[in-house]
Specification:
Blueprint: E1 14-17, H1 23-34, E2 38-43, H2 46-58, E3 62-67, H3 73-82, E4 88-91, H4 106-134, E5 137-142, H5 155-175, E6 180-187, H6 193-199, H7 218-229, E7 240-243
Length: about 250
C-alpha cells in the first residue's frame, strides 16, 4: 500500500502525550505517530515508556520518552521544557480512587487535583503561548463522564475532571483567536489496565453502564483525539465531546 500525505495529516507536527505508557494515552500516542507526528511520550515508568517507543518505531513512527511525576509541579514544568516547540498537547495522564468522601484523605484529594487538573493547567500555560505565537496548535484533555454523572463514590475524581471542562472553555477563549484549538474528550467507562485494577472482581460491571452494552476501547477514544488535533476539526473549539456509549444522553441517571 502506498502511503500518501492524506494518510499522514500530522506530518511535521510534534505532539506531547501525557500518560502514554498505558490505556488511552498509549493508544493516542500510537495513533498520532501513525499519522506522522513526532511524539514525546510521558509516563512515570521508563521500562513501559521505552516499550511504547519501540512499538511506535517498529510501525515506522517517531517517538521518545520523558519520565515525570505530574503530581510534582516542578517535574510537570520540566516535562513541558522537554517538549518545547510542540504544536499538539494531549493531557491523558490521570489518577482515580473510587472511595467515599469520608475515606478520601487530603493527600488523595490533592493528588487528584494535582495530576488531573493542575498538570494540564501548567502544561497549557507553558506550551500554548508559543503555539499562539506561531498561529497554530491543538490541545485535547481527557476528562470523564464522572464530571456530569455523580455517584456515591469518587467525588475527588469527579471534581478534578469537572475542572477540565471549565479550563477547556477558558483556554478556548484565551487561545482560540490566535489559532490554537482547545477541546476535551470525556469518556465513559473504558476497559484499561487502570480501570481493571481499580474495579478488580467488579470489572465486568463496566459493560452495564450505557446504551451500547459494553465498555469502550482505548482506541475508540484515541480516534476522537486524532480527529480533534487534525485539520478535519478546524472549526471545533471549546467543546467537550462525550464518548460514553450513551451513558449520559440515553440512559436515565
Amino acid at each position: 500500500m502506498t502511503v500518501t500525505h492524506a494518510d499522514t495529516p500530522l506530518r511535521g507536527s510534534t505532539a506531547l502525550v501525557t500518560g502514554a505508557t498505558s490505556g488511552i494515552g498509549r493508544a493516542v500516542a500510537r495513533s498520532l505517530a501513525g499519522q506522522g507526528a513526532a511524539v514525546v511520550l510521558h509516563g512515570r515508568d521508563r521500562t513501559r515508556g521505552e516499550a511504547v517507543v519501540k512499538e511506535i518505531a517498529e510501525r515506522g513512527g517517531t517517538a521518545r520518552f520523558v519520565a515525570a511525576d505530574l503530581a510534582d509541579a516542578g517535574e510537570t514544568l520540566r516535562l513541558a521544557a522537554e517538549a518545547t516547540g510542540a504544536d499538539i498537547l494531549v493531557n491523558s495522564a490521570g489518577v482515580f480512587d473510587f472511595a467515599p468522601t469520608a475515606a478520601t484523605g487530603a493527600e488523595s484529594f490533592d493528588r487528584h487535583v494535582a495530576v488531573n487538573t493542575r498538570a494540564p493547567f501548567l502544561l497549557v500555560g507553558a506550551l500554548a503561548p508559543a503555539m499562539a505565537a506561531r498561529g497554530r496548535g491543538a490541545v485535547v484533555t481527557i476528562g470523564s463522564s464522572a464530571a456530569r454523572m455523580p455517584a456515591p463514590i469518587g467525588a475527588a475524581y469527579g471534581a478534578s475532571k469537572a475542572g477540565v471542562e471549565v479550563l477547556t472553555r477558558y483556554w478556548a477563549t484565551e487561545f482560540g483567536p490566535s489559532g490554537v484549538r482547545v477541546n476535551a474528550v470525556s469518556p465513559g467507562p473504558v476497559r484499561t489496565e487502570g480501570s481493571a485494577a481499580a474495579l478488580g472482581d467488579h470489572a465486568e460491571a463496566l459493560d452495564r453502564t450505557n446504551a451500547r452494552g459494553r465498555a469502550g476501547d482505548p482506541q475508540e477514544i484515541a480516534d476522537i483525539v486524532s480527529f480533534l488535533v487534525s485539520p478535519a476539526s478546524s472549526y471545533v473549539n471549546g467543546a467537550t465531546l462525550f464518548a460514553d456509549g450513551g451513558e449520559l444522553s440515553v440512559l436515565p441517571g
